[in-house]
Write a structure and sequence with these properties.
seven-stranded parallel sheet, alpha/beta, 17% strand, 4 domains, six-stranded parallel sheet, binds magnesium ion, OB fold (Dihydrolipoamide Acetyltransferase, E2P), binds adenosine-5'-diphosphate, single chain, 25 helices
Amino acid sequence: MRPSELTPLFAAADALKGVGPHVMTLLKKALRLPVGVTQPRVIDLLWHVPAGVIDRRAEPTVAAAVPGTIATLKVRILKHRAPPRGNTKAPYKVATADETGPLDLIFFRAERSFVERQLPVGEERYVSGRIERYGETLQMAHPDYIVGPDARDDLPLLEPVYPLTAGLSGKVLLKIERQGLERVPVLPEWQDPAWLKERGWPPFDEALRRIHRPDDAADVSPGSAPLQRLAYDELLANQLALAIVREGFKAQRGRPVTGDGCLRKRIIAALPFDLTNSQRTALEEIEADMGAPRRMLRLLQGDVGSGKTVVALLAMTAAVEAGTQAALMAPTEVLARQHADTIAPLAEAAGLTIALLTGREKGRARGEILKRLASGEIDILIGTHALFQDDVVFRDLSFAVIDEQHRFGVHQRLALQSKGNGGANMLVMTATPIPRTLLMTHYGDLEVSRLTEKPAGRKPIVTRQISVDLIEKLIARIKVQLAEGAQVYWVCPLIESSDVSDLAAAEERHAHLSQVLGGGVGLLHGGMNATAKDATMASFADGNLKVLVATTVIEVGVNVPNANIMVIEHAERFGLAQLHQLRGRVGRGSRESYCMLLYQEPLTKTASERLAMMEETEDGFLIAEKDLELRGGGEVLGARQSGEAEFRIAGGAGFTELLSVAHDDARLILASDPGLKTERGDALRRLLYLFECDEAIRLFRAA
Ligand code: ADP
Ligand code: MG
């Protein structure tokens, strides 16, 4: 249960004055809401950090005011001069003065009644805005603020400038932000006092105040003490939540699972290749984990085509040798099916029983699989999200593999894990080489095995960017290649937020290529039903189809070694990691391989850097790092798909150092106070709630 003192912060923002449905819609656009949150809340306002400040502290007399600067002046209203009737271009002028001289306030297209109400003749007002010289007189056009003598405190002398959205003015947002700030309670300190002192960081509530009602412009600049404090709070909450999940996971006694190696030997004998050294090492690491009496959680990282599947299969086989069951989960149906197809002949050679369970297996067929699974007849179950369903019950699951991990969220990982008796060992596989800092933010720590070598016999992939204007030339050259037995993936443009137009583009290209190339062109898209997808994939794999036009459904994992040309249309719309994944579909066979990146001019600078990077290197790690640099962490990890929010304050660059401190801090905290039961522990629980890590913890406890 969230502590009640935090309740006002989690109220919807329309609880604040001046926030109606219209402003809510604008706030929704201007604020970055965490995944799953649809209504802006007070807390979202507090995490909305100003990008800078406008300094209105100069309070000169009129005579001393400097043209071109922003100043706040106290003046008396002398006279209103409306523009001549019918002349909409002339401004409405209000003559004012202090004892040192006159100042004209200028309003273009002014609403007369508004100006009259704001500036009654004979009264005093504070006005704040830019001072200009007009001929001999000083003037201020459209003052940013006009307040009466008793409301001087409403003037933001250091005005925070917030990131806005069209239709939302800085002034309106400022008022709302200030109300939000008033709701911040004084909370017990959760940070180590010595550490705060060393850094010179303020308490939590003061940090928020110094950012949203700054007295000092430096407080709003990146790297300021209050911002660092809040970033560190966020990082600590994240690391603590992960450490709790992780500690709890490790604390659950795993069961040592060790096989005798006889089935693995048969599989290795049936492989048409030798394992690479990295594959061997990874297997040794995985098997050591499985044999140890604690639960395993390991990440297997290997670039596309590095051969993760066979590692997974051998590890699963070890579990079967020990008399238990294993599961392999893939993010898409196509992939799950492909895994099953790859594994089937090898499993048969070893005498293993495998089955496939996806959303497509229904009714009697599904019931049959579930029965065989519960009885233990099935050794290895391969599937999609369908494996999560409650009625999928194993006789004795001891080992679960999740392929392309970043497509799944923590929730799903936990759900599958909980299906094991006493908890299954987990291996997660990903082709995205995740930099250490990102790993830490998303998993806490995690054992990692890496496949660093490519299997023998892989050829480099020639990568070229070409303008889409040259498409007919490209098609002509492909025609020649096809005659020599080549096979082509043709990926169609990704159109954001519109599957329909994605599909239309793919269909159009399909029709065009079919006509020019005279048949042998298939079409694969996300909207097809599973049977049709499989049939198309199979016919491409068999070589009946020469060209496969596809939307990005082929992005992950598809393996057709004979395919040697990858054409990506509108390559400028893809991220680097995605391009790399797509390119990894070719270069798997004996043919010379090509990746053609078609782009539409004009190219932005970033897009052009991306394409150049693709031409330069095939090193997935370099590409991932560059991608990170160009796009930021969450997207690389596919945070949007996996439902894990990005950092809101600690999101920018420059917090890496703090992240490792938070990482160590979290471990120390849990080592001395595993249940968060001390006074500080109690304060830390509030921190977890503030940053909405409560969900992760609750889920873990349930699992
Ligand atoms: P990924 O790591 O991208 O999942 P896969 O497991 O799909 O890669 O493997 C890609 C291809 O490489 C498959 O055809 C697989 O049979 C082959 N392969 C795997 N290991 C080796 C090896 N040691 N030598 C040669 N080919 C291998
Ligand atoms: Mg794979």
